[in-house]
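[09:14] KT: can someone run the structure on this one? pasting the chain below
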Amino acid sequence: MALAGFIALDATDADRATYADDIAALRTMAVERLPEVSDDPAFVYLLQAILGFDGDETWGKELDHLNDGEVEVRCPECDEEALVDLSGDDPEILPGLSSELAERLHAEATHTGRGAVGTGMTRLFGRMDCPSCGIRFNVADHLAGSFT
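[09:31] RB: done, structure tokens below
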């Protein structure tokens, strides 16, 4: 299912139109399987596949940082790189849900009993104080290629 999500994400607009019914059917199957997945990494990959079926260019490729437990970011002010711990209690991270998508993904994780995934999402979609210059920026916006 995860591979199908990546394939759908990289499909041309013409191919997405041609295979719209198939993509919709695969998305439905993925959504139905969310409550049944065996572990947190499989849950994240399935959510990522759903985002791929939806055509989300960013999170259809980047959500699996949750499985890595960390993500590297670059401060928009001083260009310093920092490693963000998505699973711990890093005091430089202010947990949050910075978008409607973040709220929806977090709700799905908590609704299906994936508390650790939900916690990781609040960190991935939270804000961070740069350890070098102190500017606060949104971690998810960095991955999305824009800063707030």
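[09:33] KT: thanks! The chain has a mean pLDDT of 91.
[09:34] RB: yep, looked fine to me
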